[in-house]
């Protein structure tokens, strides 16, 4: 058969061809095949689906939507006890998160429809706006302090955290800077590779550290390493930069007592009177209480005062208690799908700006997720960073959805995706409306003339 490959496996189907009937038309053959042959056929089909031009586009949108919806559910569930303690409406945190999600969705749609050239024009204005905002945060009387960190600007009915948008500014500015140097063929020189990328990133990190937010600073460090990796920096440069980062982080941890205490909580599984690891221990207790399928939505007990910040930094632990191992693995799978799609966008383009920006945005989301998940699991010190697209936090949700909007714009700009979108069939809604409400004809249609009957 033309549709059969080696070992009796069917070739990957193509839309519009007879090979699309891979399973349905060969059900008997497929059932009669050996397990190895079935596995090879399934692997070929999965590979074909993953290699389609629009796969990153749909994976980014689908995983983001599921993470946001599940996050809203968990924010509502994990914050019920906290709102009752402060005599607030039971939907207080849920409504605020929902408003931030709606605004972020609008920004996602706008950025997804923005051309790549226009995104490059936003790089420097956004960077200057973020620097100005973080300078205002550092001024006493203007910046708002929450949980010991001065990172917010208050505008009455809402607060904004400029440091969250520093990540988006680094994505666009760093990618634009490296793309310009790539065009002039100067990236093979250390001077042009590091300046002004590293000084600009260090400036952002210093402004963030003025507010005491080391977790966001570490995410920016990961993004800087991601940009240097994608641009092809030599290994010795990585070693030197990593050494400087380790020394700086060690100094920041040693000079602040509570950071050193958090470092001592890594791997703690039982109470110790010499160290204060209350939050880390109860995060592990929440995972243990959840079991395979969890105790059910709203039925968790750790949020009754034992687990601080259950709706923000430790929302993954609350998810593990109420949704169990199945829920936590689902969250991990969605982040894995989002990371895979971001990498596909970065390696599937010839535009240097798109490659660097997509890689930096993917590094941002994945690094921040790893820091949050590692803190909740007791594998990393508690850094106080939210879980992207999932935890409570208006500024974090807005900036993360903006990053997803940039990724969607890049996914739509690849040549294969452009061709696939142009050739895509009309939507079902449009087809249904065309059938229900037919287009009105401007002129009467004349009946076709019948051919003259030929006499015998």
TrEMBL record:
Q: What is this protein called?
A: Probable peptidoglycan glycosyltransferase FtsW
Pathway the protein acts in = Cell wall biogenesis; peptidoglycan biosynthesis
Domain of life of the source: Bacteria
Q: Which gene encodes it?
A: ftsW
Q: Which UniProt keywords are present, listed alphabetically?
A: Cell cycle, Cell division, Cell membrane, Cell shape, Cell wall biogenesis/degradation, Glycosyltransferase, Membrane, Peptidoglycan synthesis, Transferase, Transmembrane, Transmembrane helix
Report which reactions are catalysed by this protein.
[GlcNAc-(1->4)-Mur2Ac(oyl-L-Ala-gamma-D-Glu-L-Lys-D-Ala-D-Ala)](n)-di-trans,octa-cis-undecaprenyl diphosphate + beta-D-GlcNAc-(1->4)-Mur2Ac(oyl-L-Ala-gamma-D-Glu-L-Lys-D-Ala-D-Ala)-di-trans,octa-cis-undecaprenyl diphosphate = [GlcNAc-(1->4)-Mur2Ac(oyl-L-Ala-gamma-D-Glu-L-Lys-D-Ala-D-Ala)](n+1)-di-trans,octa-cis-undecaprenyl diphosphate + di-trans,octa-cis-undecaprenyl diphosphate + H(+)
According to its UniProt entry, this protein's organism is Kitasatospora arboriphila
Q: Give the source lineage, highest ranks first.
A: Bacteria, Bacillati, Actinomycetota, Actinomycetes, Kitasatosporales
Q: What is its EC number?
A: 2.4.99.28
Segments spanning the bilayer are 57-77, 98-116, 122-146, 214-231, 238-256, 323-343, 389-411
């Amino acid at each position: 058969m033309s549709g059969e490959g080696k070992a009796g496996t069917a070739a990957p189907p193509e839309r519009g061809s007879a090979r699309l009937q891979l399973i349905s038309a060969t059900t008997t053959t497929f059932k009669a095949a050996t397990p190895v042959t079935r596995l090879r056929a399934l692997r070929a089909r999965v590979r074909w689906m993953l290699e389609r031009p629009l796969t990153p586009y749909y994976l980014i949108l689908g995983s983001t939507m599921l993470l946001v919806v599940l996050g809203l559910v968990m924010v509502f569930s994990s914050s019920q006890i906290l709102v009752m303690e402060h005599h607030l409406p039971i939907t207080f945190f849920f409504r605020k998160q929902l408003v931030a999600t709606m605004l972020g969705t609008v920004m996602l749609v706008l950025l997804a429809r923005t051309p790549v050239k226009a995104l490059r024009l936003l790089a420097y204005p956004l960077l200057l706006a973020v620097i100005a905002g973080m300078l205002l945060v550092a001024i006493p009387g203007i910046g708002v302090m929450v949980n010991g960190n001065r990172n917010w600007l208050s505008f009455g009915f809402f607060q904004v955290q400029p440091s969250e948008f520093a990540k988006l500014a680094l994505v666009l500015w760093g990618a634009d800077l490296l793309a310009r140097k790539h065009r002039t063929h100067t990236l093979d020189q250390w001077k042009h590779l590091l300046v002004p990328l590293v000084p600009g990133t260090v400036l952002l990190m210093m402004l963030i550290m003025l507010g005491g937010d080391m977790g966001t600073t570490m995410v920016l460090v990961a993004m800087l390493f991601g940009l240097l990796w994608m641009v092809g920096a030599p290994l010795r440069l990585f070693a030197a930069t990593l050494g400087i980062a380790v020394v700086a982080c060690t100094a920041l941890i040693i000079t602040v007592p509570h950071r050193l205490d958090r470092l001592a909580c890594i791997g703690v599984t039982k109470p110790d009177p010499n160290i204060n690891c209350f939050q880390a221990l109860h995060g592990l207790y929440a995972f243990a209480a959840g079991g395979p399928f969890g105790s059910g939505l709203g039925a968790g007990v750790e949020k009754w005062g034992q687990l601080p910040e259950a709706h923000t930094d430790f929302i993954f632990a609350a998810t593990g208690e109420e949704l169990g191992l199945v829920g936590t693995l689902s969250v991990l799978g969605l982040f894995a799908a989002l990371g895979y799609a971001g990498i596909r966008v970065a390696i599937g383009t010839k535009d240097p700006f798109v490659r660097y920006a997509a890689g930096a945005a993917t590094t941002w989301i994945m690094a921040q997720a790893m820091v949050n998940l590692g803190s909740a699991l007791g594998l990393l010190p508690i850094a106080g960073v939210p879980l992207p697209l999932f935890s409570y936090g208006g500024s974090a949700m807005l900036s993360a959805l903006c990053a997803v909007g940039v990724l969607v714009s890049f996914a739509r700009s690849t040549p294969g995706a452009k061709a696939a979108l142009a050739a895509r069939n009309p939507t079902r809604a449009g087809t249904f409306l065309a059938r229900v409400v037919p287009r009105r004809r401007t002129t009467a249609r004349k009946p076709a003339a019948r051919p003259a009957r030929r006499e015998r």
